[in-house]
Amino acid sequence: MKNFGLIGKNIAYSFSESHFHDKFRKANITNSTYQLFDLKSISEVEELFQTKELKGFNVTIPYKEEIIPYLDELSPEAQKIGAVNCVKIQNNKKIGFNTDAFGFENSLKPLLEKHHQKALILGDGGAAKAVKFILTKLEIDYQSVTRKGELRFPDLDKEIISEHPLIINCTPVGTFPDLEASPDIPYQFITTSHLLYDLIYNPEKTKFLQLGEIKGAKIKNGYEMLVLQAEKSWEIWSQSL
User: Fold this and answer.
1) What integer pLDDT is reported at residue 149 of this predicted model?
2) HSE on the CB side for 173, CA within 13 Å?
3) Are both 77 and 148 inside the same structural domain?
4) Residue 130 · residue 83 · CB < 8 Å
5) Is the Cα torsion angle 70, 71, 72, 78 positive or negative in sign?
6) CATH number, domain at 20?
7) Residues 78 and 119 in one domain
8) Are 87 and 233 spatial neighbours (Cβ–Cβ below 8 Å)?
9) 139: CATH
10) Strand locations in the chain, DSSP E?
11) What is the pLDDT of residue 15?
């Protein structure tokens, strides 16, 4: 039996386990399992590595950066991004990849219009690093909005919102069960020219997206990105099976 899974913290909400169970069932894959590994601390991953049948796992909040010192090697893309969300274990070697970038790029590109030349990235964690990597690749200028950085949430005004028609939420604010929470931005300045993209997929429509939709903005949640990155992860794992 080959074991796969997801490591993170407070991840009972995750879709990954049911997604892979469905995938295995439909493809008649009977020798593989996928489970959630809810770790209180990243150091617990060392015990997980002792599982002989473990062939790979995904990584989510808050461990996409913290996992790196526990790995033997990084793919060129993961090295550039500085965050890992997929690990393959082959011949006892633990190799880190970033499939978030693939998922984000391929779910974002069909939505882009000519005026989407500047973006605001809300948050600066591991997921935001993949977003930055792709925006740079697509030649879209961006600024990060954080609590303590150069551009902070209280700094956002009509001019800044107007100049950045693409706004991407990379924070966990608004994730189930905190459904009424949303990033603290001035939604009154959102227009029909804006595209609001939320990496959160549970709930399907976060408060962030609801408030954007009210103003006529185009909206997108993180579900397609999640599916695409999961499929890319499986492709990476399958190469060694």
Assistant:
1) 87
2) 18
3) no
4) yes
5) negative
6) 3.40.50.10860
7) no
8) no
9) 3.40.50.720
10) 2-8, 32-38, 54-59, 73-74, 86-90, 93-97, 118-122, 141-145, 166-169, 195-198, 218-220
11) 87
Structure tokens at 56: 């790979």
User: Could you list the mean pLDDT of each consecutive 10-residue stretch along the chain, which spans 241 residues?
Assistant: 95 90 93 95 96 94 96 98 97 96 98 98 95 98 94 97 98 93 98 98 96 98 96 91 62
Residue 175's pLDDT is what? Answer: 92
How far apart (Å, rounded) are the C-alpha atoms in residues 215 and 177? 24
- The answer on 27 and 71 residing in a single domain is yes
Please identify every residue annotated as catalytic.
64
Domain that holds residue 47: 2-99+230-238
In the three-class reduction of DSSP (H, G, I as helix; E, B as strand; rest coil), residue 186 is classed as coil
Contact in structure between 202 and 11 (CB atoms under 8 Å): no
Instruction: Give pTM, 2 decimals.
Output: 0.94
Q: What is the 3-state secondary structure (H, E, C) of 10-40?
A: CCCCCCHHHHHHHHHHHCCCCCEEEEEEECC
Burial class, 47, CB count within 10 angstroms (exposed 0-12 / middle 13-18 / buried 19+) = exposed
